[in-house]
Amino acid sequence: MLNGTTADQSVERTNLRINAVKTCQPIGAMYAALGIHGCMPHSHGSQGCCSYHRSHLTRHFKEPVIATTSSFTEGASVFGGLANLTQALKNIFSIYNPEIVAVHTTCLSEVIGDDIPTIVKRAREEGAIPEGKLVIHTNTPSFVGSHVTGFANMVTSTLKYLAAEPTGETKDQLNIVPGFVEPADMRETKRIADLMGVKTVMLPDTSGVLDGPLDGTYKMYPKGGTQVADIRTMADSMATIALGHFASNPAADWLEAKQQVPAAHLELPIGVGATDAYVEALRAYAPEGKVPEALETERGRLVDLISDMQQYFHNKRVAVAGDPDHVIAMVKFLIELGAKPVYVITGSPGNHYERRVHELLDPIVPDAKIKQSADYYELHQWMKQAPVDLLIGNTYGKYLARVENTPFVRFGFPILDRVGHRFFPSVGYNGGIRLVELMLNALLDHKDRTCAEEWFELVQ
Amino acid sequence: MARQLDILPDRAAQIGRAGEGGSTQPALKAGRHSLAGSVSQRACVFCGSRVVLYPIADALHIVHGPIGCAAYTWDIRGAQSSGSQLFRNSFSTDLQEMDIIYGGEKKLERALRDLIERHQPKAAFVYATCIVGLIGDDLEAVCKTVSAACGIPVLPVASEGFKGTKKDGYRAACESVLKLIGTGDTSKVTKRSINLLGDFNIAGETWVVRSYFERMGVEVVATITGDGRVDDIRRCHGAGLNLVQCAGSMTHLAKRMQDDYGIAFKKISFFGIEDMAAALYETAAHFEDPAIMDRAREVVRDELAAIMPKIREYRRDLAGKRAAVYVGGAFKAFSLVRALRSLDMDTVVVGTQTGDAADYEQLREMCDPGTIIVDDSNPIELAKFCLEKDVDLFIGGVKERPIAYKLGIGFCDHNHERKEALAGFVGMVNFAREVHASVMSPVWNFVPRRASRAAALKEVAS
Ligand code: SF4
Ligand code: SF4
Fold it and tell me: What range does the domain containing B407 cover?
């Protein structure tokens, strides 16, 4: 479909993004804010951005996504958004009655240079914010970073506002920053901690918010989400486990630097080793200090599955595209499976990404192409030069997969055309099992569809 | 919950009910900007321009701005092309901090030259986003330079998001298209010819409608913009008549073409049997050619014969069911109210994002007394109205779908995400099938509200 439009030699491009593997900061901030219970995300800018972010999240989660907007007009763009935000806060609290409003900026308000804390302070003085209600904010200029940055910014800012005053008494609990992952992943991350007997506070937590049941009612503020009261205790926790360098480390680092809560920097627990690392980190704080049998068994099942099927992954050339934390974790898992990640891109900027993937791949696939701030167009050119056996990426990867007739697994954000991500985790041992199944199905379905008659086999 | 279902006080002027107070009731205050702080379903100027122009398939479309504006409009609309697929790529200048400080003109120029050389498009559209309006890049100048250097029309679209509503985006799009019109050779265009304005070929709808006119012996010069081609648009001023569907987006273009080229236009709709047939007859009448009128009748007769048995089947189940309609433009709302009526369904809630006072007056006249009429709504309101009127079906766009489902209400997407042609006669069957499938889905038996209603009915029966 997009074939005719893709040249097969690489051209250096510095002025142009074609078919991006990233989007803008505010959507990440909006997603993070939805993971706070009773929270109304607020987009301080023109109404278009807000509408786009909500639609995009709705297409991914197939759930209602609420957020309000300052509805900038030309006037606001010249004189600043003070009046708009004040009016907005008044309206939001009087009608939608949230516990907390999480403001993020947009390109527009960033360039205008609106000073949100000052505006909010004045709004409070004017009585626009009812007693006991909270307003927090983060800055999310889209010409810096990507949606992952926006997520990290919102989580960090939430802590700055709400976990500013430790009691000084350490609480028997761990903080977890789960990364820009699915509600199902957050659920699984908590379940594993539960199995270990470790008490946790997870921020944000969109499980129970964006995977709600159909019960005949429409709730603006579903049951899930991290309670504000719990967030307040995060400065008193024993430690913070950050899952993912880009989405989660900034929040954990702030807690460590400012509140002396030690941070453990982990990668997303995808695959055997990364999940082991997560379990290990939990074990240090587990009351019994050991891993329960149930979890050992889950691990054993994943390893068993891989051993049953490793021959199909051996030396398979794989292309991975997505958000940096996801891609790093996926590369590690592919190495465990015996596959060869040959093209590894992310749309987000970030030197840590390239450094880390090189560290992982240089000993095994020295000629792998690894790139930050890349796009699908470039990946497609590489695939035309030397094809791959499997492509892993978000929904947009389907254009490449179709043209190149390449087996394709959807992974990451956004997924606009399938449903599995809404229910099944990718993290943890069980998540690993699911990913192996997805990859194996993609590879074997492709073989069954395309191989010569004599190679068509009943048993695999 | 009761508290949450209040209506914003400032919004009261944007909500009305048919049959109340008659003409003494003040007109709905429409066309204003969304209230700051409301969960508005509305989009921006850029969005309006982008959806209107992007189906021009052999043009290059590049979004000048930070990445988001481009990312969210990447191939979301399902507008189909019979040839070039160039328009389905997402081209963006992905402005970075340095560009914001020093300006993005150079970057845009290089990007345009590079892309035009590589893809050889027939024309290029350059969309402005909010940021561009702020940093003051001179799109006109860049476009002029590149156009002169590359020899194709390079057209700026003044679509800075904050400069109004989606409707202003339609107008900006029309202005850009106007610059193409009148630049092609019309010597081969016949007298009995039309342009189709405001159909975007979602799920192949332009193809359906186009075929009717061709069967009538009417030449279709340009489809603007569904399955659109630059060369067709350049010569479309030779056509005898403009048909404007989705009046909100393209009336401006039709008016300008009337002024500049003396081409008459008619506002029509391709949704629903009545409207579709009327569109064909009006066109035939315009050309004052009995042979065309005869063939129009033939087309309508043949098409109806093919679809009526099926529709009757669906209607049996759907009669008396209630519907809520919330769509972008008022013209579509009119058509939907009529189409639902032809399925014997009642429209009890109807709203639009961009209607004006006259539109709402017309809706008020069309609908039964008590029908709720609303301008620029939000989810809380919509949910409240749906429950109050106990509707069986919601017709809306992407953001309304999950809300409807959460309430246990069937849904039909009449917006970007429809997957089947809903225009034309065949579209009416598709529409009826979709509505039927969703309203009659067994899943609603598991929804508390519906289940208890079913139980109550059973009790009454026994
Ligand atoms: S930045 Fe402006 S143009 Fe872009 S989506 Fe937002 S409102 Fe629309
Ligand atoms: S990139 Fe900026 S302007 Fe565009 S949608 Fe995102 S926040 Fe809005």
Answer: 2-30+319-418
Residues B85 and B19 occupy one common structural domain: no
Q: Selecting from 3.40.50.2300, 3.40.30.10, 1.10.3710.10, 3.40.50.1980, what CATH number does the domain A294-455 have?
A: 3.40.50.1980
Q: Are residues B57 and B166 in the same domain?
A: yes
Same domain, B378 and B407: yes
**CATH number 3.40.50.1980 is the correct assignment for the domain at A174-211+219-292:** yes
**Mean pLDDT, residues B339-360 taken together:** 90
Half-sphere exposure of B74 (CA within 13 A, CB side): 26
- Number of structural domains in chain B: 3
| Angle between helical axes of B205-215 and B290-318 (0-180°, round to 10) | 140
B449 found inside a domain: no
Q: Check A214 against B90: CB less than 8 A apart.
A: no
Minimum mean pLDDT range among A161-170, B67-76, B242-251, B421-430: B242-251
B403 CB-near residues (< 8 Å, 6+ apart):
A64, A218, B379, B382, B383, B394
Burial class (CB in 10 A: 0-12, 13-18, 19+), A304: exposed
B450 domain-assigned: no
What are the φ and ψ backbone dihedral angles of B64, each rounded to 5 degrees? -95, 105
Catalytic residue among A107, A135, A201, A228: A107
Residues B236 and B358 in one domain: no
> Which residue's CA is minimally distant from atom 4 of ligand 1?
B69
B354 to each of A62, A387, B38, B367, B413, how far by Cα in Å?
25, 48, 16, 19, 18
**Nearest CA among A276, A284, A182 for reference residue A240:** A284
Q: Residue A329: what are its φ and ψ, rounded to 5°?
A: -65, -40
Is position B386 within any domain? yes
**Ligand 2, atom 6: nearest CA belongs to which residue?**
B68
B355: domain CATH number? 3.40.50.1980
**Are B258 and B331 part of one and the same domain?**
no
State the fold for domain A25-162.
Rossmann fold (3.40.50)
Using omega within 30 degrees of 0 as the cis cutoff, is the peptide bond preceding B225 cis? yes
For B7-32, the pLDDT digits (tens) are: 555 666 677 777 654 433 444 555 55
From the list B1, B130, B398, the residue facing A55 with the nearest CB is B398
Tokens of B283: 């066109």
Residues A73, A75, A79, A81: is their CA dihedral positive or negative?
Answer: negative
Cα gap A455→A280, rounded to integer Å: 44
pTM metric for this prediction: 0.93
Picking from B8, B10, B32, B38 by the largest number of A CB atoms within 10 A of its own CB, the best residue to mutate is B38
List CB contacts (< 8 A) between A220 and chain B.
4, 379-380
What residues flank ligand 2, with Cβ below 6 Å?
Answer: A 24, 26, 49, 52, 106-107, 142; B 65-69, 129-130
Give kind and range of the element (H or E) at residue B210: helix B205-215
Burial class of A367 by CB neighbour count within 10 A (0 to 12, 13 to 18, 19+) = exposed
What ipTM, to 2 d.p.?
Answer: 0.93
Euclidean distance between CA atoms A158 and A154, whole angstroms: 6
Chain B 39-78, residues with CB within 8 Å of chain A CB atoms: 39-47, 65-74
Q: Hey, of B98, B326, B398, B406, which one would you mutate to test binding to chain A, going by the most A CBs within 10 A of its CB?
A: B406
The residue written with tokens 């527009």 in the block is A108
Q: Would you say residue B266 lies in a domain?
A: yes
C-alpha angle A385-A388-A394 in degrees, rounded to nearest 5:
110
d(CA B179, CA A156): 49
Taking CA atoms, what residue in A is nearest to B380? A220
Contact A134, A161 (CB under 8 A): yes
pLDDT the model gives residue A158: 98
DSSP H/E element including B462: none
Query: Nearest CA of chain A to the CA of B341: how many Å?
Result: 27
